[in-house]
Amino acid sequence: MRSRIALALLAALLAAAPLAAQVADSSPFRRLDLPTPNAYRSAGGMPGPGYWQNRADYDLAATLDTAAHRLFGTGTIRYTNNSPDTLRFIWLQMDQDIQASGSINRMAPPPPLLFADVPFDMAVTGPPGGFIVDSLTTDHGVAALYHWDTMERIDLARPLAPGETMTVRMQWSFLVPVNGVARMGRDGPLYEIAQWYPRLAVYDDVNGWNTLPYIGPGEFYLEYGDFTAAITVPAGYIVASTGELTNPDEVLTAAERDRLARARAADTPVAVISAAEAGQPARTRPAGTAPTFTWRFAAHNVRDVAFAAAPNFRWDAVGLPLGGTRRLIQTFYRPGAANWEEAIRMARHAIASHSRWYDYPYPQASAVEGPIDGMEYPMIVFVPADPARTALGWVMMHELGHQWFPMTVGSDERRYPWMDEGFNTFIDLYTVSDYFRADDPVHADSVLNGPLGAYPANAVPGQEQPMITAPAEVHNLYWTAYQKPALMLRILREDVLGPEAFDRAFRAYTARWAFHHPQPADFFRTMDNLSGRDLDWFWREWVFTTSRLDQSVDSVVPDARGDSVRVVLGDRREMVMPVEVRLTWSDGTSETRRIPVEAWNYGRRHAFTVAAQGRRLVRVEVDPRAVYPDVDRSNNVWTR
Predict the structure, then answer these.
(1) CB proximity list for 133: less than 8 A, separation 6 or greater
(2) What is the DSSP secondary-structure string of 86-142?
(3) Left, alpha or beta for 541 (phi > 0: left; psi -120 to 50: alpha)?
(4) How far is 130 from 149, CA to CA, in rounded Å?
(5) Contact 213, 202 (CB under 8 A)
(6) At 36, phi and psi to the nearest 5?
(7) Residue 578: HSE in the Cβ half-sphere, 13 Å Cα cutoff
């Protein structure tokens, strides 16, 4: 009998198993499905003991033909395979080929992106262009070439073994577009040059070769290395570039060299080229009759090189003491550019303020005024003039903030712009607010509250997309990549973890992954482990979904004797957050309770009892400071 009962119970359990397997865990606190930690990326969010990263060092030369608007380049790449894999081919990013007649961008142009109602057009216009490659060789041979959109595969005659370095030599040219997808271009005699040479694609432990084409909205993912760049321009031109100028005696006058040396040691700006001197004839340059000068730059441990050149730049510079050494801060701008005489102070403040997270790692930082509405490269940024100094201040400090994300912390912008634009926008909130606090406190507050204020117009049900969405598919990049992640991190810092816990973790993330390639899971795990909190619920709702928050006061009931009051709070939508509730009593006193997110462990209602002490409760309000994006504030308040 017992055996028959046991068999019957076993059969019942087996029959019920498929039904049980269909029941999904719907808890907001369920584990987030992240990649399994391994030797390359640890469970604590650090690079693992086996972490590797390939390296690309470049020696580049460019000649700018300002009559034909063409750039002629030569270059040598030394590519080191630090991976455990034998590479039988390599991929080059040919980003200028976005201008080619048959590019994805031309055939399926992206719509203009709106940044707070300002259009940012990344559709290719103008005559067909792209790289013309005159020669391409490697010391491992070339078995075959394969080109696809903005990517070029080189099949190697001799594979590249682990630990081995190969050399690629190239010669190319291209027509400099007027508008290079809003990231580079020209305006009369002024050139802002980027994506100007073939670049090694990243081979990493997550995706192997990263071959997503350059369509426009997605930015760049690049290897680190050392660079030299020799830039030949007409004799009257001034050049600003990634790196340090290594031949000032050949391209600067004695007076300019003296001013530049004084500026590095000074705490107030020095005019290296004044308004009166800007645009003077080439004979005021160093002695010589050559029609062109070659400016030489060197950069250590950077992921890219960009430069700007014009015959009429004003040039301001100032020093900044940081970590025991002085950085050189520079601005280059055309005479008459609105508010740019103040730009040098803005730039200096930006580098100093952003360094609260990680000391600025490079010897100089340059900001160039020109036609590009805002774009960042290592040690150099392109920023437009603006009649509103507050607007100029935001763009200046935002572009310089990119020196931390992604120039120092080399995330994959092509897939995860929220780890680049969003992290940068977050640190900008504090830097910009601090700059304007003394003379325009209203604007300073509006900057800090900007992402929250942008929520109603952008987090529209049925239209909003998760932050994890690929940038090429995002309809509202302004929100998804910039403002929403900044709001997420500000709430995490100010109202979930607190500044002390957040800052320690965020600084650790920046330091751990400086000059490395983090993935989202590396960030999540670092923040969790350093703060001591399980934040799976937070990352899921902010990054992977479009969950909404609606906290409410559901009921307030005094007991029969009036000794206490029972308050019931509700969580009416998908998102959970900690609760701040303010209780106001009949005697005019009030108290604020901060209830942790664990209040929702047992469901969507949370009740607590408070002693009346001879008073009557006359008002209960959740989120009284209005710091959360609560979608229905009509149920946030109960009054007697």
Answers:
(1) 170, 171, 172, 198
(2) PEEEEEEE-GGGGGSTT-HHHHSPPPPEEETTEEE--S--SS----EEEEEEETT--
(3) alpha
(4) 10
(5) no
(6) -65, 130
(7) 15
Reduced to 3 states, what is the DSSP secondary structure of residue 84?
A: coil
CA–CA distance, 189 with 309 (Å, rounded to integer): 8
DSSP 149-209: TTEEEEEEEEEE-TT-EEEEEEEEEEEPPSBSTTSSEEETTEEEE-S-S-EEPPEETTTEE
CATH of 551-639, one of 1.10.10.60, 2.20.28.10, 2.60.40.10, 1.20.900.10: 2.60.40.10
The whole-angstrom separation of Cα 406 and Cα 412 is 8
pLDDT the model gives residue 112: 83
> Cα separation of 477 and 474, whole Å?
6
Contacting residues for 627 by C-beta, under 8 A, at least 6 apart: 452, 491, 494, 495, 580
**CA–CA separation, 578 and 494 (whole Å):** 12
| Contact between residue 44 and residue 521 where contact means Cβ atoms under 8 Å apart | no
Residue range 534-563, pLDDT digits in tens: 999 999 999 999 999 999 999 999 998 889
pLDDT given at position 152: 98
Measure the CA dihedral 275/279/283/286, to 10°: 60
Q: How far is residue 192's CA from residue 334's CA, in Å, rounded to a whole number?
A: 13
Q: How far is CA 81 from the centre of its chain?
A: 27
pLDDT tens profile 71-110: 999 999 999 999 999 999 999 999 999 999 999 999 999 9
Residue keyed to tokens 């370095």: 165
3-state secondary structure of 486: helix
Residue with tokens 């050494």: 325
Q: How many CA atoms lie within 13 A of 372 on its CB side?
A: 31
The answer to whether 414 touches 221, Cβ cutoff 8 Å, is yes
Distance CA 476, CA 478 (A): 5
Which token pair is 217?
């909205």
pTM for the full predicted model: 0.94
Measured CA to CA, the distance from residue 596 to residue 424 in angstroms comes to: 28
The 3-class SS string of 418-462 reads HHCHHHHHHHHHHHHHHHHCCCCHHHHHHHHCHHHHCHHHHCCCC
Q: Does domain 444-544 have CATH number 3.20.20.80?
A: no
pLDDT of residue 11: 54
- Model pLDDT for residues 170-184, shown as the tens digit of each residue: 999 999 999 999 999
- Distance, in Å, from the CA atom of 543 to the CA atom of 545, rounded to the nearest integer, reads 6
Diameter of the chain measured on Cα atoms? 111
Distance CA(617)–CA(609), nearest Å, equals 12
Output DSSP code: residue 216.
Answer: S
**Domain spans in the chain, listed from the N-terminal domain onward:** 444-544, 551-639
Count of beta carbons in the 10 Å neighbourhood of residue 603: 10
Segments in 322-440 forming alpha helices (H): 340-354, 389-401, 421-436
Using CB atoms within 10 Å of the CB of residue 624, give its burial: 0 to 12 exposed, 13 to 18 middle, 19+ buried.
Answer: middle
Structure token digits, residue 285: 């340059």
Distances in whole angstroms, Cα of residue 504 to Cα of each of 246, 509, 511, 532, 612? 38, 9, 11, 11, 40
DSSP 3-state of 292: strand
Please, is 500 exposed, middle or buried when counting C-beta atoms within 10 Å of its C-beta (0-12, 13-18, 19+)?
Answer: exposed
Instruction: Give the helix ranges, DSSP H, for 544-632.
Output: none
